[in-house]
Amino acid sequence: MSTAHTILLVQPDKKAEGRTYSDYQSINDCMEGVCRIYEEHLKKSNPTSNQITYDIAQLFDFIDDINDIACFVYKSDGSSYKPYNREWIKEKIYTLLKKQASGN
């Protein structure tokens, strides 16, 4: 995946004051960041559990439950950022996790 600077925008619920953004040096780093957000959510939901496990369907359900999530990726021509929606994020996460599972 590209090493383009990527900004992740997240609004977990309807409250505007809950909006956050994070920036990453690559699309991969951003997708790993989305996974970490879910893992932190699981840790908070299961504070007595020593280990967390999940499958991709659970991760995608979590992403679908977020009120608004989007990425802005810096275009290679250096002129602007291009917006991407939650479906694009899920596709990139799927590709990343598939690649990690195959050991590449």
Fold topology:
Blueprint: E1 6-11, E2 20-24, H1 27-45, H2 56-65, E3 68-74, E4 81-84, H3 86-101
Antiparallel strand pairs: 1-2, 1-3, 3-4
Overview of the structural elements:
With 104 residues, the protein is an alpha+beta fold. It has one domain (6-101): ERH-like fold (2-Layer Sandwich), CATH 3.30.2260.10. 43% of the residues lie in helices and 21% in strands. It is built from three helices and four strands. The chain has helices at residues 27-45, 56-65, 86-101, and strands spanning 6-11, 20-24, 68-74, 81-84. Strands 2-1-3-4 form a four-stranded antiparallel β-sheet. Helix 1 (27-45) packs across helix 3 (86-101). The protein is globular. The two termini are 12 Å apart.
Question: Which key features would you list for this structure?
Answer:
single chain, 104 residues, alpha+beta, ERH-like fold, four-stranded antiparallel beta sheet, 3 helices, 4 strands, globular, ERH, Enhancer of rudimentary homolog
Number of strands: 4
Average residue-wise pLDDT: 93
Under CATH, the homologous superfamily reads: Enhancer of rudimentary
Strand order of the largest sheet: 2-1-3-4
Q: What oligomeric state do these chains adopt?
A: single chain
Question: What do we call the CATH topology?
Answer: ERH-like fold
Largest sheet: 4 strands, antiparallel
Helicity level, as a percent range?
Answer: 40-55%
Measured on Cα atoms, how large is the radius of gyration?
14 Å
Query: Which residues form runs of ≥5 with pLDDT under 50?
Result: none
The SSE string, one letter per element, is: EEHHEEH
Distance between the termini: 12 Å
**What structural category characterises the helix and strand content?**
alpha+beta
- In total, the number of domains comes to 1
CATH architecture: 2-Layer Sandwich
- Which CATH C-level class is it? Alpha Beta
Shape: globular
What is the beta-strand fraction?
Answer: 15-25%
